[in-house]
Every structure is written in C-alpha cells, then in structure tokens.
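Intended use. Records like the one below are meant for learning the mapping from a protein sequence to its folded structure. Do not use them to infer anything beyond what is encoded.
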Amino acid sequence: MLSRLRVQNFAIISDLTLDFALGLNVFSGETGAGKSIVIEALGFTLGARGDVSVIKDGADKMCVTATFSSDMLPDDLRKEFQIAGDVFTLKRELDKKGKNKAWADGRAVTVSALAKLGRALVDFHGQHEHQSLLHPSVHLLLLDKFAKHDTLVKQVEDSYRQVQAVQAKLDSARLSAQEKEQLLDMSRYQLKEIEDVNPSAEEDYQLEQTLPKMKHAGRLLEMASEAYNELYAAEDSATARAGKAARELESMAELDENLAALAKDLNSALVTLEDVADTLGSYKDDINLEPDALDKMLDRHEKIKRLKAKYG
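Structure written out for the chain above:
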C-alpha cells in the first residue's frame, strides 16, 4: 500500500507531502489545482518518462519520494532489492541536465529497476474508464459473461458468419460476368502491387525514425565506439576505474564511518555510468554500415509512401 508521497519542485508543486490511510483515499479540487500532477509525480517515481520541462521554474532539480508497505511486494522482488523492513521508499530525482538518480529503500538503482518495482506495486486507471459501462456493446459482454453464455455466443457468431458468407455469394452471383472479370483484374493488380512491397505494420514510421541515423551511420559508429570504449570496454575504462574507487572507498568507510555517505554517492555515480554504457552499447550494435543499406531503405520508404497514398 502507498502510505506517503512527497513531491518537490514538480511542475507547479514546490514541496508537498501526502499521507494515505488504509482503504479508499480521495483528494479533490478545482480544475487546475494540481490533482493530475500528483498522479504524474507518482508515475515518475515508478519509472515513467521524465522531462526536464516539468521541473519547477527556479529549481535545479525535481524529486519525488513514495513510501510503501512491503507486505504487498512479491518475495522475489524483496530478495532482489534487499527490502527487509515493513515499509520501504522509492525515490527519483531529475536535474536540469536530464540526469536521473533513483533509489530503492536507500540503495541506488536504475530507472528501469524502479519501473519493475512499480509494476508490482501500482495499477493506474484513468478518470474516464468507467464511461465504457455506458456502451451497449459492453452491456452485452457483461450480460453474456454473467449468464455464462460462452457456448451460445460462439454458436451465434458462427451462424452470423455463415449468413454473411451466403449473402456474399448471393451478391457475387448477381454481378455480370464482365463486371466480375473487371473487379478481379483490378483486385489482382492491387494485391500484386501490395505483395511486391509487402510492408509490415508501422514500417513507415520505423523507417522515418531510422533514416536520419543511417545517413550519418559511419560517424555515429565511430563516436559511439570511442565513447563506449572509454566508458566500459577499455581495460582502464571509466566504469572500471570508478568501480575500483568505489570498492576502495567502501573499505575505507568500514574504518571511518564518516566516509559512508561518500561511498554511497560514488556507487550511485557508478550505476549511472553503467546505465549510459549499456544504452550506448546497444545503440552502437544497432548501427548498419552495409554500403547499399541506405539506398535500399530510401527506396523502400518511397514505395511504402506510394502505397499509403494510394490505398491508405
């Protein structure tokens, strides 16, 4: 259960703390009072996309902290994130430079880890979802489900399809031989035109996203490889050096507890470095340098555009 939510410098909110009781909790207000912002802030804590434009004017960063009862958390997630107490916190920060920091019960984690925990903790339901109950089609589904009419519904659907098939045959028989031949010729031509291109769902959108990257593939690969090497792959990489320093600092903190906070900060920085290196490695591996790949992609994009203009 969500027991507390603290929101700092998020949109119009400077610093807000909400405590939730057991059972149903309701907060209300006029339009524009910030109710939806509170929900967005909770989503941000649970791994939703963050945008620097949401940071409150005049602030350097925004921060949201959510406190939950741990009894609702599956055992495998408790073990994975080392959560032992009755309550735990999830915290996330985003600064003006777009840098994310995240913690689960005080331990630095990735944003994707927050999202993993969030899926086990919270379900979001929009304010208009209840309106589906006003649709006649929903009424029929609910009634059939309540009456356990699954078999009967399938029989009706099968009978309807049979009627439709017979009606289609009857309509087809009414066409003259010449009209049928003309329609067949046109259909064959259109089908062949589509099959020759054979586009997949949303392929045009994917091509539009990929083409700019392909046009600069060589330069992007060179820079990405160099950055990845410096961050992770090289023997003396930034992550290797930061990891070594973190281990040393943790050992020092065992001797001097005043260094514990510093060791924690360095571990957080190491998580961020590893996140960047992992994302950059995937980006690098996806770059295509085949000599004619760009020409093929441009040609295919043009063919799909023509099909869309012709057939929608």
